[in-house]
Amino acid sequence: MKKHAIIPIFIPHQGCPNGCVFCNQKTITARKPDIGKDEITTTIETWLSTLVDRPGLETVEIAFFGGSFTGIPMKQQSAYLEIAKRYKSSGLVQKIHLSTRPDYINREILNNLKAFGVDIIELGVQSFDEEVLTASGRGHDSSCIYTASALIHEYDFELGIQLMLGLPTDSPEKCLYSARETVKIKPSLARLYPTVVIQDTALMELYKKRLYTPLTTEEAVSTAKEMYKILTEAGIQIIRVGLKSSDLIREDGEISGHTFHPAFRQLVEGSIAREKMEYLLKRVLSSGNGKVDTKGAPDVCDQNGAACLDASCEEVTFLSSEKWFSNMIGHKGCNKAHFAKTFPHLSIDYKTSQLQDGSIAIAVADGSYFVVK
Predict the structure, then answer these.
(1) pLDDT tens for the 373 residues of the chain, in order
(2) Is residue 267 situated within a structural domain?
(3) Cα–Cα distances in Å, from 315 out to 281, 286, 300, 349, 351?
(4) 112 shares its domain with 40
């Protein structure tokens, strides 16, 4: 049962006169650019009617997405937020969430957001690399990212960071740099988006002129996986990986290149799971100096752990939490197929266990049990 529900209010391109090369907000959100107060109220009421008496639901959040909310005139911001605050004050929702640009944050704006009970501010950072920011037409340098983040922390808002990979002049090294810089500014939330080439954007024109080459799916997964690990190991919750599918953003829709995939998050998390499974299986099949004592709590270590299972086994079982089971199996069973092909002499089973999400365990016939976080 999901404990958290989001009521999305899309305000595409409002408040953002900037022309980022990758952006066509009308296409991304598949709606008209204008939204009125009555439409916001109707949207909230419609969503709330579907959430009544939902078992296990603890938090309902109104989230303003799609544009740069704090770039909207202050009067309009206040009108939108007044509606959200009314529902929060009544107890029907518990949080107010919005997204904006780093260069649209200052004390006047934050004072206003605080007055209307905003809880979470996400910054569309995209990259910390100066060359990437310039080539992507972001209109600001990296310094304002650090300044805005510090102010958001000072005002005690929850901070979220959105990063993109595969932008013009980008590289895996630059992406990992952005992930490490994100850790330094200590957000609690993050999103990872591979760049998708959308119709009616400057990036599409660059693509047509062969001045920009999108990442392949494999390249995007490889880089996103390493960014994901950096962020999660720092305790940052990754709330989205990849664009959400819609009528326009899909494999046969208004896109080009290969980085859109409706199950991109599973591709990334499945790749991480496979990496851990291969590590564990190699440890099991190696001739080590020690043997894990399996009586009592399972042995836990990280991927550089020194423990080694000295076991000559024909049967092994991989285990994960219920939530991560599909990642352990892999998208369309790719991990399961990989291990069946690579280790045909082994009988491999897959089961759920009371493990932390993201952890993978392996058990062998003699009872030895080894976990990697």
Answers:
(1) 678 999 999 886 555 666 787 777 555 444 455 688 999 999 999 999 999 878 889 999 999 987 789 988 999 999 999 999 999 999 999 999 999 999 999 999 999 999 999 999 999 999 999 999 999 988 899 999 999 999 999 999 999 999 999 999 999 999 999 999 999 999 999 999 999 888 778 888 899 999 999 999 999 999 999 999 999 999 999 999 987 655 344 444 445 545 577 889 999 999 999 999 999 988 887 744 334 333 333 343 433 333 444 445 688 999 999 999 999 999 999 999 999 999 998 999 999 999 999 999 999 877 777 888 8
(2) no
(3) 11, 15, 21, 8, 13
(4) yes
3 state SS of 194: strand
> Which domain covers residue 186, as residue numbers?
4-262
CA atoms within a 13 Å half-sphere pointing along the CA-CB vector of 239: 13
CB < 8 Å & 24+ apart, contacts of 13-17: 13/66, 13/67, 14/66, 14/67, 14/68, 14/69, 14/71, 14/72, 15/67, 15/68, 15/69, 15/70, 15/71, 15/72, 15/100, 15/104, 16/67, 16/68, 16/71, 16/101, 17/71
CA neighbor of 279 nearest in space, from 361, 364, 368, 369: 361
Pair 321, 279 in one domain: yes
Q: Side chain identity at 314, as an amino acid letter?
A: E
Angle at 102 (CA atoms; ends 98, 105), nearest 5 degrees = 75
Domain check: are 250 and 284 in the same one? no
Specify whether 245 is located in the same domain as 282: no
For residue 47, what is the domain's CATH number?
3.20.20.70
Question: DSSP assignment, residue 79?
Answer: H
CB proximity list for 247: less than 8 A, separation 6 or greater: 30, 253
- The answer to whether residues 63 and 201 belong to one domain is yes
- Of 230, 262, 294, the position where a domain reaches its end is 262
Query: Which whole-number Å values give the CA distances from 91 to 45, 84, 248, in the listed order?
Result: 14, 11, 35
Q: Is residue 21 a contact partner of residue 201, using CB atoms and an 8 Å limit?
A: yes
* Together in a domain, 288 and 243: no
Choose the final residue of a domain: 262, 290, 310.
262
Say how many C-beta atoms besides its own lie within 10 A of residue 209's C-beta.
Answer: 8
